[in-house]
Amino acid sequence: MAYATYSDVQARMSHTMSTSEQTICTNLLDDAAIMIDNYNKDADSNNKKVVSIRMVMRSMSSSSDGIPIGATQGSQAGLGYSESWTVGTGAVGELYLGKEDKKLLGVSNKIGASSPLEALTCKEVLI
Known about the structure:
With 127 residues, the protein is mainly alpha-helical. It has five helices and two strands; from the N terminus they run αααββαα.
């Protein structure tokens, strides 16, 4: 069960989706819901909707100025034309949960985010 609709995603995008894009978006929203539920099925439903939309937007779109969503750095050249972008977490087109998404779902500090040594006091470490 998806937590958002293609209309929700389209409302945040800079263009109107074609029929085929609507179908792809709907399928991606279903996939996103499964991923979200695997992280925290009990998360707030409004947060699940926001995270679903963010995940699908990263997968489907790039910004109107030609910079891919998720790009952490880029470069352009001049007359010989060259362009390169470094994309952060996840491959372009892949659904993934970003750091802020995990915070919205309430799992940011629960999955591999701390070391067991952090619970020890200085005295215990010295012994």
